[in-house]
Amino acid sequence: MSQDKITLDLTKREVFGKQVRQLRSQGIVPAVIHDHGKPSLSMQGNAVALLKTYRQAGKHHPVELTADGKKYTAMIKIAEFEPRKQMLTHVVFNAVSATQTVEAEVPIQPQYAEGNDASPAERNSLLVISNIDVVNVKALATNLPDVLYYDAEKLVEVGDHVTVADLVIPADVEIDADATQTIATVYEPSAIAAANDAAGGDADPDEAVAADHESSAEEGTQDAEQRPGGKKEFEDTEQGHNPTKQ
To answer: Residues 166, 149: contact at Cβ < 8 Å?
Structure first.
């Protein structure tokens, strides 16, 4: 976890229900602190400060709260936004202790070899499409990582992919997700474009790959049959004869 301490001041809220709209019009956002089964605390804070805190902490970094004169270490559980203007409208905090194991969503990012800013596949004009960009973890609040990385140098050819099992996990962190869940996959741009055209701009990447296999079959060349993601490999995988490309 980053050693940067994130702090926020909140004050007690006396306004509830429809009157909360008046708070928002004054640049104040309502908030709630849940504290280990104790009565919830209705609070409020400066909209700019709360938004900055959310951008810094997300749902995976502890926040040091000063709430009506009392100190709390808390995690952001819920952050609600107005859908049209994307304005922060409400925040829910869960108070945590130093010895408490907490659950959090941690961002996932690719890690490239030194000197690179893209995967081998992307450097060869292929597309890498992410299936998920966060993963649930369990750890002490002080041990929560700010981000989890995977080795993007493994993404070379069409069909290559990385899963949750490929994440680099700190010793004191437990992943609360299926290890086989796919994080990112390599696709051919032409297959994605063709599928998008056919689907009116809203194609599923997996359908795009299937369409690419069909296109390769029509070409009928040995090259197209044997290339990664080509018809031969696709058929073998479908029939369970290709354990090396799943």
So the answer is: no
pLDDT the model gives residue 239: 47
**Domains in the chain, please, with CATH?**
7-96 (2.40.240.10), 103-239 (2.170.120.20)
Nearest 5°: phi and psi at 187?
A: -130, 160
The pLDDT tens digits of the residues spanning 150-167 come to 999 999 999 999 999 999
- For the chain, what is the mean pLDDT? 83
Q: Taking residues 21-46, what's their average pLDDT?
A: 92
Residues 6+ apart with CB under 8 A from 142: 1, 62, 98
Look at 206 and 99; give whichever has higher pLDDT.
99
User: Residues in the chain, how many?
Assistant: 246
Q: In angstroms, rounded to a whole number, what is the distance separating the alpha carbons of residues 21 and 39?
A: 24
Nearest alpha carbon to residue 108 among 181, 7, 189, 5: 181
| Nearest C-alpha neighbor of 209 from the set 171, 174, 159 | 159
